[in-house]
Each structure stands twice: as C-alpha cells, then as structure tokens.
Amino acid sequence: MDSSQFDVVVVGGGLIGSAVALGLGHQGWRVALVDGATQASVLAEPEPARNVDDFEPRVSAISMASQRLLEDLGVWQGVTALRHCRYREMTVWDGDGTGRIHFDAADLHVGSLGTIVENRNIVRALYRVLQDSDVVLEEGQQVRYWRAGHGVELADGRRLEAALVIGADGAHSRMRQWAGLPTREWDYDQQAIVCTVRTEKPHRFTAWQKFAITGPLAFLPLLNEAEDDHYCSIVWSQDTLEAQRLMALDDEAFRQALERAIEQTLGAVQSVSRRHAFPLRQRHAKDYVAAGVALVGDAAHTIHPLAGQGANLGYGDVRVLLDELRRARAAGLSPADPDVLTRYQRRRKGENLTMMAAMEGFKQLFARDELPLRWLRNTGMRWFDRMPVIKNRIAVEAMGLAD
User: Fold this and answer.
1) Which residues pair with 10 in a beta bridge?
2) How does pLDDT run across 44-64, given as a tens digit for each residue?
3) Residues with Cβ < 8 Å from 16, sequence gap 6 or more?
4) What is the greatest pairwise CA distance in the chain?
C-alpha cells in the first residue's frame, strides 16, 4: 500500500473543508485535501442565470465575520466576481399576529447586513485559490477507512498519514463515526423546501422572513448577471406531512401556495424553479476532538435553517481552529497536540451550543398557538423593534462585528 506523509489531512472539500485546508496551507503545514468531487467539475464556469432554473437552490447568507475570513484566505474577491447579492435590510414578522422587526444596515453604519451566495460559487472561488497553493488535492477520492495511528485509507488503496485528520465531511460524517465521537440529536419532523423564484416586485435588497406555526418561510434576495433584483432563493420549513403535500403540488398550485404564504409581500410569484426538500435534524457532537481528529462544520453540528447560520457557524470553527494551529506551529507543537485541540473545542463548543439553543427557542416560540403566548411574542417583537440600541447590538453580534 502506497502512503504519503502530511501534517494534516482534511476530509471533505465543501464550503468548510476547502477553507480550513487553504488556511492551513497558508500557514506552512503540509496539507492534503480529500474530496469526492473533481477540480474540473468544481471549477467549471457557471451558466448565466437567465431564469429561475439557472440558480443553484442551496445558498448561504455569509456574515461579515465569515466574509473577513474569506478575505484573509484571499478568496472573497473571487466570490464577488461570481453571482452574489449583498442585502441591506431584513424584515421578520409573525404570520399569525402583528409583531414585526426590521433591521437596516444604515442603522449600523455598514454597507450591508451580509451577502447571499450560491454555495457552489463559494466552493468554486476557494478551489481557484487552492489550485495555486501548496495544498495537495486528492480529487475524486473517497475515504475507505480511518484508524488512529494508521492514517486515512483511500478508495484507490493509498494511505495518507498525518498527525491530524480534520473531518469536514458533513452531517453524516464518517470521520466522526470512525473516531467514536457520539452525538446528541433529534428530528424536527420537518422538511425544508428550497427553490428559486422570480417575483413581480423587486426584493429591494431585503431578506424577508415570516414565522408561522408550521415553520418559517424565508425569501433571500438574489441577483443575476444583469443585476435583475426580482429573484429570490426560498427556504420554506414545514412540518413533514405539509412539506410532502406541498412537494406533491404541480408548479402552478405550488406557486399560488407560496404567493399566499408570503402574503404577496413581493407581489405575484411569477415563476418557480425545480423544488428540493430535505429533512431537518438537529445534531451536535458531544466532543469535537479525539486523538488525532478534529471536526468542523456540519460534521460537528447541524442547526435549523431558520436563521441561515449553518455556514457561518462552520466558518467560525475554521477561524478558531486556524488560530489555534497557527499558535501551535509558532510554538513548535504538533497540530494534534491534545492541549491545542482541547482549546479549539472549548472556544467553539459554547458559542455553537448557544446559537443552537437560541434557534431551538425561536422555533418552539413560534410553533405554539396559545393566545397568551401569541400575544407575548407579538408584543415582544414590537417592543424589540422600538429599542434600537438593543436591536442593533444583537444585529452586530449576529454579523460577527462585536468587539
């Protein structure tokens, strides 16, 4: 069996894995990135978006903190050279009441609250920088097995040996399973329906989110190459039976249902792309690290999409892990030093759990229909919207701009 020696092997080349591999390569570590996709498929030029079917259905709302990380990696310029949409405002309301909250970048003295980007365009920008780096790309490869002290075994029979293996292989992480890192998880009994729509009215560079008893509906602003501001990516979380009913509708019936659900906030929904649905499950690894292993992104935690924070939590993991490994390298320590990995886990676990608890609280709050609770949440939303100091501080925290 052939083997190769590295300091770090990263398993999974998506949004998070490719970022951590690139950052470690910049620091001077010998890094290999194992990805099931090929460079040719990732780097293929995106087709122009002439209609709703030309956008990727999966998008991320990149916060300012995540943008800064991608800037530090030399990637952000490449992201913004592709389709993206900076949003300046956000409106959130209770579909079963009168509560409403409005956020505006102008109140925070910043240019935008964040940027909506198709996931594939982020990965494409990362790979464009990766191909000119010293990171070894093991493209089109699957990991057959990992065992402590024996490295990563690839499907083609080769073995990659490294002090540290980083699992960035998603919610169903095999690295997490092989390392014996248990999770705490539960099923929401909901599905998220995602697609792209074109609306009669422009989105006004605003992210719109309506909360309802059966789940939240988000319209996230998009732009095509002609900067037409009538496109939105939707994420519609619904109880499983209702999601299945909606997915079974024909395009016209679904279009009408979506138009009613968003209360014609953007006028008529003129066209809808192919729909996709995926089950929602909250998952959190009890530990992010083991001997010679660290988890990042969805391999460590998955969260309800109601606040669009999944990618940003993953980039938070990347930022902290890069910081700890930079310190380790400066001190002449192994990347798998137990104290280094423990500090990474300690710095990230509390923040991730806090965000996950907050999202669970929001979901439960809006899932209840008792009249006193409905009055309380609507009164609270109206009060909150009239308290700019508190509202703007929370917005700053969510954007990652806090001191």
Assistant:
1) 33, 166
2) 988 899 999 999 999 999 999
3) 168, 296, 297, 298, 311, 314, 315, 317, 318
4) 67
Three-state SS letters, 269-312: EEEECCCEEEEEEEEEECCCEECCEEECHHHCEECCHHHCCHHH
Q: What is the DSSP letter of 48?
A: P
Average pLDDT value for the chain? 89
Match 């040996």 to its residue by tokens: 161
Please state whether beta strands 89-94 and 206-211 pair in parallel, antiparallel, or not at all (unpaired). Answer: parallel
Q: How far apart are CA 73 and CA 304, in angstroms?
A: 28
Q: For residue 1, what are the contacts with CB-CB under 8 A and spacing of at least 6?
A: 153, 157, 158, 159
Beta-bridge partner residues of 48:
none
Distance, CA of 175 to CA of 173 (rounded, Å): 5
> Is-contact 325 29, C-beta < 8 A?
yes
Strands (E), 20-99: 31-34, 59-62, 84-87, 89-94
pLDDT tens-digit readout, 217-260 = 999 999 999 999 999 999 999 999 999 999 999 999 999 999 99
Q: Which residue shows structure tokens 């789940």?
A: 215
CB 359 within 8 A of CB 215: no
In order of 239, 255, 385, the CA distances from 247 in angstroms are 12, 11, 35
| Closest alpha carbon to 120 in 65, 60, 174, 68 | 60
Residue 126 contacts residue 69 (beta carbons within 8 Å):
no
Q: Are β-strands 151-154 and 143-147 bridged in parallel, bridged antiparallel, or unpaired?
A: antiparallel
Burial of 147 (0-12, 13-18, 19+ CB in 10 A): exposed
165 burial via Cβ count (<10 Å: 0-12, 13-18, 19+)? buried
* C-alpha Rg value of the chain to the nearest Å: 22
Please check whether residue 97 is in contact with residue 144, taking contact to mean a CB–CB distance below 8 angstroms. Answer: no
Tokens of 287: 């530990």
Phi, psi (deg, nearest 5) at residue 40: -60, -40
Q: Are 276 and 247 in contact (CB under 8 A)?
A: no
